[in-house]
Amino acid sequence: MEKKEIEKNVLEMSHQSNLSRYITMFISLLISALLYNLLLQPTKIVIGGVNGLAIINNYVNKMNPSVTIFAISLVMLVLSYIFLGKNRTSGTLMATFIYPLLVQLTSNITKNIYIDMSDLLVISIFIGVISGLANGMLYKTGFSNGGLPIISQILYQYYNIPIGKSNFVINFIIIILGSMIFGTTMIMYAIIILFINSLIIDKVILGTAKNKAIYILTSKEKTIKDFLIKDMNHTATIFNVKGGFLDKKRELILTIIPTREYFKITESIKLLDPQVFYLVNDAYEVKGGK
Fold this sequence. Notes:
The protein has 290 residues and is of the alpha+beta class. It folds into two domains: 3-206, no CATH class; 211-283, Alpha-Beta Plaits, CATH 3.30.70.120. The chain has ten helices and four strands. A four-stranded antiparallel sheet has the order 2-3-1-4, covered by helices on one side. Strand 2 and strand 3 (249-258) form a beta hairpin. Helix 6 (149-159) packs antiparallel against helix 7 (163-182). Mean pLDDT is 86; it is low at 6-14.
């Protein structure tokens, strides 16, 4: 294949990839907007972020939620450009304008769709799952929904304050403000939503691990290696290592196994060597080898 043809194919693949990213971003923001208007706004569950501030401001000042979301997001966008630079801001640019627009366009959806809000626990679980899916899809494309997390990024860059901690404090303050207006019970539902949301985001970004990576340190290297290769039909990679306590050279065995065989293999190696030491990690992506 000629060089020009290769470059053409790479360019086409790049355009298709970018188109897919933008479509995914739009779908995730649309889901978030529908979730806001169908469940978050009607139930007044404040879970932090610009959505939480929009719910509070709408209740206190009767301001249109989409206007609040856009105003705060725009301010955060400007701060991001000033303090974080153009490259780090570009990922939040689209969401800053599209998300509040979608919130406004879907604001009347409750007139056509009725949802029973009596069971707030079920509602909270559903919000956590769907918001986690939407946010996970968005983050996986490389885009960001911007908003208040930009403050955490700025604090980390200039004052080395961990993003997770500052983000937690900001959202906690907003949740407390919401509880002062809508009642303290709301805090419990907010915690449920945030917990589930975090779990689902990780699953969407990383996926469900179909394989496990097992690191095995044993005095019966040959026995366990033969078991893995001959009995279980898996490959094994051997590393020469030295223990820090005894200063003794040993062999470390690494093998990748299907998750369904995890229990069988770990129980077997414990029988082969009761003193075995092993470490198991999720292997989200495995390529190559035989």
